[in-house]
Amino acid sequence: MASSDRDTSTICLFDVDGTLTPFRQSIKPHVDEFLHELRKKVLVGLVGGSDFVKIAEQMNGQVDILKRFDYVFAENGLVAFKGTTQIGQQNLRKFVGDEVLQKLINFALRYMSDLVLPRKRGIFIEFRSSMINICPVGRSCSQEERDEFAKFDEHGVRDKFVEALRQAFPTEGLVFAIGGQISIDVFPEGWDKRNSLQYLEKDNIKTIHFFGDKTGKGGNDYEIFEDPRTIGHKVTDPEDTLRQLKELYYS
């Protein structure tokens, strides 16, 4: 997208779940249209913990997404696209090794087997190219069951799980971060959303506005939100994201 008034030294970089979309749901048309208009002013990018296919589904189009955003960073930026060109990818299995991964998966499954929750469904461990996603309720749960677990998690189910993981794997160089409504992301130290910033720096982008909802310590937006290279904006939901963008660019 070319515009004589567009500032290509500035980017608005967005988390997906809870920031641009309701958790694991599709982007609303009015939010999508707002981002289209915003892109006439500055660069616009996504950085999510989910894999590329899931992010594309939430943005309503696997092919179209790479044309509608200047940058798309999936799996915390470990799978990176600039426009329609893939510019980076990391491999968790090669980096960590199968021995550590199997110990981690076995520990997580044992821990979850003792949890008593309102519901349990299926897909408790999802192995992605650059991270492992652990889900106590099971990723095959319905939206209603997802919301139910999120409410139940106010008792600290995931917080306690993360602490147990940290105690069990203190020297493996792994990070355990709460993400979205229902899961925990596991990845090597340094493989958080800050990984996306290297590509923006290479392209001489000077101002990086990051918008995210899980910005507290232990959340998967925390590191990039606190990074001195970004201007962090904590949001509560997609409508709050739009409100803050209007104040920033249209007031």
From TrEMBL:
Binding site for alpha-D-mannose 1-phosphate: 24, 128, 139, 146, 183, 185
Positions annotated to bind Mg(2+) 1: 15, 17, 213, 225, 227
Main EC class the enzyme belongs to: isomerase
Main location: cytoplasm
Amino acids binding Mg(2+) 2: 230
Pathway annotation from the record: Nucleotide-sugar biosynthesis; GDP-alpha-D-mannose biosynthesis; alpha-D-mannose 1-phosphate from D-fructose 6-phosphate: step 2/2
GO BP term (any one): mannose metabolic process
InterPro entries in the record: HAD-like_sf (IPR036412), HAD-SF_hydro_IIB (IPR006379), HAD_sf (IPR023214), PMM (IPR005002), PMM_cap (IPR043169)
Swiss-Prot/TrEMBL catalytic activity: alpha-D-mannose 1-phosphate = D-mannose 6-phosphate
Enzyme nomenclature, EC number: 5.4.2.8
Keyword Cell membrane applies: no
GO terms for cellular component: cytosol
Organism superkingdom: Eukaryota
Cofactor: Mg(2+)
UniProt keyword annotations, A-Z: Cytoplasm, Isomerase, Magnesium, Metal-binding
Subunit composition and interactions: Homodimer.
The protein's name: Phosphomannomutase
Organism in which the protein naturally occurs: Arion vulgaris
UniProt gene name: ORF89263
